[in-house]
């Protein structure tokens, strides 16, 4: 019985091997994440007499090279949430933290939880790539919001409220928005009101045809009237044009990046067996459905629907001591923040559309009619949605 604790960091790991009753097989030593050193580590662990189990923490993507390599070498590997290690104090009152101490703690925890350890199974390539795409999409989306707010603030000094002139949705092919493309051409209100209305309408019509946008003569008249009623604070000069055009080009590049990642996410998600089942759930469109699949992964890895709810951090465990029972308690949030965000967006879609024949909305509306606060009924509905998701997708995966 050899308990191996591996504290993982970027590029290297610290390894400790213990046996029951405090026997030290190998004091903490470092292993670089290179093929030669990982091969030597696997050879050493295989040479140990008796059963060997390795325990390590989820640490971003750092743990994957060593966990995958040892798993492929036929060594039992278990990967746990860092919260579990943090809560495991061991046999000390000192609050010290080093890589050596953490590896010893993991080895001791492996001995104590020997029978409870779950074997690590690497994600398949499609699911892993889909999850990375989703995380990158969320990061780029934050940057897009920053760039858009910066552009609006800049245009308020050259062409106020130009962003309110159009309500067309973003184009699916490249993610471009009409008002952004319009502002690249007509970056100052004097670009419009500095010419006659007839000239502007002709110019605007040519621009619409060139950029593949629908032309409307009444809309052109409204734009001209809006531009004539505005006053630009910044002068119409080359310096101002440079600032506006560069801000727009950066935003357009981000929109194109998001559109490309979104298309790739849909392609990857559609190749998975549960895709059609997830798409049938109300509120899970092309983007949100792909994000749900990305963040939840293979649903069969969860023992029950409660495990999935806990993974999302939406569970509210009981709190009882003696004769005291707390009936109201906040959710743990000890789970995937990205999944909770996606679920909240799905609930927002359901709430906005208010489909009377959908069980999720019926449940949500019931909680709302009971006087529950906004966050309470949204979380309750998300919890129910996850349970339905678990039941349907697991059935679909089992039947494939």
Give the C-level CATH assignment of the largest domain.
Answer: Mainly Alpha
CATH architecture of the largest domain: Orthogonal Bundle
Question: How would you spell out the order of helices and strands?
Answer: EEEHEHEHHHHHHHHHHHEEHHH
What's the alpha carbon Rg, rounded to whole Å? 28 Å
Total separate domains: 3
Report the sheet-strand fraction. Answer: 5-15%
User: How are strands sequenced across the largest beta sheet?
Assistant: 3-2-1-4-5
The description of the largest β-sheet is: 5 strands, mixed
Which blocks of ≥5 consecutive residues have pLDDT under 50?
Answer: none
Rounded average pLDDT:
89
Q: Quote the distance from N terminus to C terminus.
A: 38 Å
Shape: elongated
The helix content, as a percent range, equals 55-70%
Q: Write down how many β-strands occur, each being a DSSP E stretch of 2 or more residues.
A: 7
- Counting helices, strands and paired strands, the structural category is alpha/beta
If you consult CATH, what is the topology of the largest domain?
Helix Hairpins
The total count of helices amounts to: 16
Describe this structure in a few short sentences.
The chain folds into three domains: 115 residues, Nucleotidyltransferase, domain 5 (2-Layer Sandwich), CATH 3.30.420; 134 residues, Helix Hairpins (Orthogonal Bundle), CATH 1.10.287; 125 residues, no CATH class. 55% of the residues lie in helices and 11% in strands.
Outline the secondary-structure elements:
Elements: E1 2-9, E2 12-19, E3 23-32, H1 35-47, E4 52-57, H2 64-72, E5 76-80, H3 82-87, H4 99-112, H5 125-155, H6 178-185, H7 190-193, H8 197-210, H9 217-228, H10 238-270, H11 275-279, H12 286-296, H13 305-311, E6 319-321, E7 324-326, H14 337-353, H15 359-369, H16 374-399
Parallel strand pairs: 1-4, 4-5
Antiparallel strand pairs: 1-2, 2-3, 6-7
């Amino acid at each position: 019985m050899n308990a191996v604790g591996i504290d993982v960091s970027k590029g290297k790991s610290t390894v400790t091997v213990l046996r029951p009753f405090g026997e030290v097989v190998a004091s903490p030593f470092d292993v670089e994440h290179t093929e030669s050193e990982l091969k030597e580590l696997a050879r050493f662990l295989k040479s140990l007499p008796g059963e060997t189990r390795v325990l390590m923490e989820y640490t971003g993507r750092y743990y994957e090279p060593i966990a995958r390599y040892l798993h492929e070498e036929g060594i039992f590997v278990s990967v746990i949430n860092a919260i579990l290690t943090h809560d495991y104090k061991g046999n000390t009152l000192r609050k010290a933290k080093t890589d050596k101490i953490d590896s010893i703690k993991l080895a001791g925890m492996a001995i104590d939880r020997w029978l409870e350890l779950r074997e690590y199974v690497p994600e398949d390539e499609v699911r892993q790539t889909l999850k990375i795409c989703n995380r990158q999409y969320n990061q780029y989306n934050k940057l897009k919001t920053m760039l858009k707010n910066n552009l609006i603030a800049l245009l308020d000094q050259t062409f106020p409220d130009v962003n309110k002139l159009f309500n067309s949705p973003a184009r699916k092919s490249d993610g471009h928005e009409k008002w952004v493309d319009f502002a690249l051409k007509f970056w100052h209100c004097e670009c419009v009101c500095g010419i006659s209305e007839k000239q502007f309408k002709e110019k605007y019509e040519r621009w619409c045809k060139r950029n593949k946008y629908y032309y409307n003569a009444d809309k052109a008249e409204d734009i001209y009237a809006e531009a004539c009623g505005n006053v630009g604070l910044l002068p119409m000069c080359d310096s101002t044009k440079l600032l506006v055009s560069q801000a727009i080009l950066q935003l357009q590049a981000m929109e194109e990046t998001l559109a490309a990642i979104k298309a790739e996410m849909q392609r990857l998600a559609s190749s998975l067996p549960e895709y059609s089942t997830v798409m049938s759930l109300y509120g899970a469109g092309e983007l949100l459905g792909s994000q749900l699949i990305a963040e939840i992964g293979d649903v069969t890895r969860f023992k029950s629907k409660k495990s999935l709810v806990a993974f999302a951090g939406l569970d509210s465990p009981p709190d009882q001591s003696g004769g005291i029972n707390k009936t109201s308690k906040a959710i743990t949030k000890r789970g995937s923040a990205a999944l909770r965000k996606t679920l909240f967006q799905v609930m927002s879609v359901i709430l906005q559309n208010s489909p009377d024949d959908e069980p999720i909305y019926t449940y949500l509306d019931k909680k709302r009619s009971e006087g529950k606060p906004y966050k309470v009924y949204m979380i309750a509905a998300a919890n129910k949605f996850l349970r339905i998701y678990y039941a349907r997708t697991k059935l679909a995966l089992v039947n494939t």
